[in-house]
Design brief:
alpha/beta, five-stranded parallel sheet, four-stranded mixed sheet, 8 helices, 11 strands, elongated
């Protein structure tokens, strides 16, 4: 009879080594395309190469394994250390999400696969707005990264034009490749309204720690004379949540 192989990459490690550090072995990891990111406890620092080799042996669709050492720099991207690879050690990779394909690079740009469902809701929101206005709409994403928030809209018949930008030059390089028919820029979102004012019916504000502070300078991107939608995400302390609605209303009132 056929004998089943290891069910988890830890089963490919030397058993005595595994037992010695059993309480420290990282059991979960993130996979973005064919790149695996794993946090290595300090107790296992000298064994990280063995960990990477075990993961690649266990998962044939993995090309690169990296240690995730947290975030770094002004763009808050992951500090990655390549531990092992097969064909090449580039962290640029092709991602498939909600039936779409696009390029990203976890070592140079921010991308979270955990927001896939939220991005799909944006498609539904755009369709509802298009039906309400009775025409195709324009969408602007000033914090687009590599474009996962607007790429699903490129297949729709209710979006006429997409404006997307990011301040990170490396993100913009991939953004322009992922969205060849859209208007893309490498720019500070807070100055974008001076360049392309009144450009959109739907505005996406995906910078959760700074949404409220940036909002006054983003309103100029919205078209006027009809209903528009701003979809944003906010991370704030619970104590500040109570007055958030009034604060947002005041921002729009002061812009009129």
């Amino acid at each position: 009879p056929l004998v089943g192989g290891p069910k988890h990459w830890t089963e490919r490690l030397d058993m005595s080594l595994y037992e010695e550090f059993k309480e420290y072995w990282p059991m979960s990891h993130d996979q973005i395309g064919d790149v695996v990111l794993i946090k290595i406890p300090i107790e296992l620092e000298s064994h990280k190469k063995s960990i990477a080799e075990a993961i690649i042996s266990q998962q044939p669709n993995v090309r690169v394994v990296c240690a995730d050492n947290g975030v770094k720099g002004d763009f808050r991207v992951r500090d990655l250390e390549v531990l092992d690879f097969t064909s090449n050690d580039s962290t640029e990779t092709l991602v498939r999400e909600n039936g779409n394909e696009f390029l990203t690079d976890p070592g140079n740009v921010y991308y979270s696969p955990r927001l896939a469902n939220e991005r799909q809701k944006t498609v539904e929101l755009a369709q509802r707005l298009s039906l309400k206005l009775g025409r195709k709409i324009s969408v602007c994403d000033p914090y687009a990264g590599v474009g996962p928030g607007v790429i699903p809209l490129t297949k729709s018949d209710f979006v006429e034009h997409i404006f997307a930008s990011d301040l990170n030059p490396k993100a913009h390089q991939l953004l322009s490749r992922n969205l060849p028919k859209a208007t893309t820029k490498c720019a500070d979102a807070r100055s974008l309204a001076e360049v392309i004012p009144n450009c959109c019916d739907l505005l996406l504000v995906n910078i959760p720690h700074s949404t409220i502070d940036h909002l006054p300078e983003l309103i100029g991107l919205l078209k006027t004379g009809h209903e528009v939608i701003v979809k944003g995400w906010v991370i704030i302390e619970q104590a500040m949540a109570e007055g958030l609605e009034e604060r947002v209303k005041l921002i729009f009132a002061n812009h009129q």
